[in-house]
Amino acid sequence: MKLWKLNSRDLGIDLGTANILVSISNKGIVYREPSVVAIKKDTEEVIAFGNEAKEMLGRAPEAIHVIRPLKDGVIADFTATKLMLRAIISKVTKQFKLLKPRVVVGVPSGITEVEERAVQEAILSSGAREVYLIEEPMAAAIGSHLNIEEPTGNMIVDIGGGTTEVAVISLGGIVTSASIRIAGDEMTEDIINYAKRYLDIVIGEVTAEEVKNEIGCASPFMTELKMIVRGRDVRTGLPVKREITSSEVELAIKESINKIVDGIKQALEITPPELSADIIVNGIMLAGGGALIKNLDKLITERTGIHVIVADNPLDCVANGTTAILENIDTLKDILVMAHGRI
User: Fold this and answer.
1) Both 226 and 201 in a single domain?
2) Are 15 and 132 in the same domain?
3) Among 188, 199, 220, 233, which one is most buried in terms of CB atoms within 10 A?
4) Are residues 188 and 175 in the same domain?
5) Which domain holds residue 152?
6) Are both 150 and 298 inside the same structural domain?
7) In the beta sheet, which residues pair with residue 174?
8) Strand 11-15 and strand 102-107: pairing?
9) What gap in Å lies between CA 306 and CA 281, rounded to an integer?
């Protein structure tokens, strides 16, 4: 197949469970909003997406379906994903006066062939001309400025909304990897369940996310943080507010954090010895929204004995990686994957 030269008409997409980021080569990230869409049930018309749709979560009337169509890093609702992507790509292409773009999209390393085709078809039906896939840990490694081409081992841990991607990379390829379907969304659910069980309050997803982002931690703070949450009393059903502390949030998300750390340790256990030696020197690069959980880097270091570096702008690593690929296609073409195999 003849290789093409990508230009500023082409898009990179981080198709995240929590957020979608869109980048344009030579421009960088041009769209960054939650992976939420609001659709009229009777007509399937998109009435809002992104931040506007997220504000409707838990507040919309019955005639409007507000959903997160991606789950565990892959498409859970094909129709809603297609409608959402069509709206996003239309907005970006109109804003920057682009023709039908070629698209490079980041996908979990554990994605199946069926899920690959679903992603490809959703984006093609949204106005793209061609679609190429890149495994998210590879995109995150490029976006966090790891030197993936050298004959040395680098470990990347990308904790997104739906999946945690762990990979050891050397000579431009993934040597060992694990895709763990536990990440930020699971922690948000943990906080909702904890509040209901121990604080007798039902809180929504948006409130739980705020708690996670504000006082979420993987190990205790020197000074405990507190936060007021508002919701519905479990017993009376009436509006109520409660105080939640950082130590309670730590307890709530502890099991999910432990599973992520166990996944990292398992990936290290199957890494070839020479690459393991490199990782001891180079450390573990932490990317994705989960990298912002306070003290998580310290906990991983304690459990593995390897120092952890949090990437600059960890939320942007996958999107920045797709941008780098768009701008350096001739040298990075070998890591792109079509829906049915490499280029």
Assistant:
1) yes
2) yes
3) 188
4) no
5) 146-182+257-314
6) yes
7) 169
8) parallel
9) 8
Give the integer Cα–Cα distance in Å for 82 and 68.
12
Q: Are strands 130-135 and 102-107 parallel, antiparallel or unpaired?
A: parallel
CA 234/CA 255 separation, integer angstroms: 24
What sign has the CA pseudo-torsion 266, 269, 271, 275?
positive
- Tell me the HSE value of 224 on the side-chain side, using a 13 A CA sphere: 10
- Tell me: do 55 and 153 sit in the same domain: no
CA dihedral 335, 341, 342, 343 (to 10 degrees): -130
Angstrom distance (rounded) from CA 340 to CA 90 = 26
| 230, 252, 274 - which closes a domain | 252
How far is the C-alpha of 299 from the C-alpha of 291, rounded, in Å?
A: 12
Per-residue pLDDT tens, the chain, 343 aa: give them. 334 444 447 899 999 999 999 999 888 899 999 999 999 999 989 999 999 999 998 889 999 999 999 988 788 898 899 899 989 998 998 898 888 888 899 988 877 888 888 888 888 888 888 888 898 999 999 999 998 989 999 999 999 999 999 999 999 899 999 889 999 999 999 999 999 999 999 999 999 999 999 999 999 988 999 999 999 999 999 999 999 999 999 999 999 999 999 999 999 999 999 999 999 999 999 999 999 999 999 999 999 999 999 999 999 999 999 988 888 877 776 777 543 333 4
Judge whether 85 and 126 are in contact, CB under 8 Å. yes
Token pair recorded at residue 59: 């507040």
Contact criterion met (CB below 8 Å) for 249 and 218: no
Q: If DSSP codes are grouped into helix, strand and coil, which group holds residue 206? A: helix
**DSSP helix/strand/coil, 173:** strand
Give the domain CATH number at 263: 3.30.420.40
DSSP3 helix / strand / coil % (the chain, rounded to 5) = 40, 30, 30
Q: How far apart are CA 127 and CA 28, in angstroms?
A: 20
Global pTM reads: 0.89
For residue 27, count other CB atoms closer than 10 A to its CB.
Answer: 11
Same domain, 269 and 281: yes
Widest CA span of the chain, in angstroms? Answer: 66
| Beta carbons within 10 angstroms of residue 235's beta carbon | 8
Domain check: are 209 and 302 in the same one?
A: no
